[in-house]
Amino acid sequence: MIALEAGTPPDTAPGAASVETPSGKGRGDENFPVGSWLIRRDLRVHVHAFYRFARDADDIADSPTLAAADKLRRLDRMAAILEGAAEGARGGESPAAAAMRESLAATGLTAQHCHDVLHAFRQDAVKLRYRDWDDLTEYCRYSAAPVGRQLLDLHGEPRATWPASDALCSALQVLNHLQDCAADYRALDRVYLPQADLEAAGCRVEMLSAMTTSPGLRRVLDTLLDRTDMLIATARGLPPLVAARGLRWESAVIVGLAARLARRLRLGDPLASRVALAKSDFAAAFLSGILTRPRAQHRQ
Question: Could you report the per-residue pLDDT of 285-296, keeping only the tens digit for each?
Fold first, then answer.
């Protein structure tokens, strides 16, 4: 087990420039709990290491000041350090990648999930539009699904849990895209709303710069929420499959929060202001989540 506190970088070579561009966002800024006290204490540092790795890579991809080629170079450098390249060598350092490498060494897990999220962020650096729902969910396969898979692998859960976990993580990703649809367009000219859905509703991406949602754009959002509700329905099958009690509870809480955020997005206008969960949503989801029971064969 590594003796590394969450959020604390290991020693790095003096004078080496970091490739990371931290936005200042942390676990407390997320919609959903990340490695909360529900997770087994000895695993939390590894959950936090993976979150930090993904967060820092995401910050590179979302930087409004870096050119696409520079973003790709930085993300490639994170991948190299993850695989053992010395920090401070040509290209700079990445404390998050170094910490993630130590975490993988301590747990014996594959680096594949880390490389998958890097694949998604490389795509973010160069791809600004999505053709249709299938195109968007393929992106979620790399940007979101690896997060759930990493958590499940850390807890030794079987791969039979992956489909429901993938559905949950994809739902969370799409909900985040809907929350930030205006900000993504205005800051990065990036639009995750599928072009096919926009065209079917007679909408143009420029409508995302308005201060309120047009009727056509509202139809697009509701169509995406309909599909997201189907993902959440699949995700409800995840908690009963999870043997680890804390992870079962946390996954149940997150499923409940996803459903509540989807309902809020049905009623709110993400162009007028960011639609977010309330404290009451967290309280209700927590209470219902901890009552989730495992299937008989997984009882501890």
Answer: 877 777 766 664
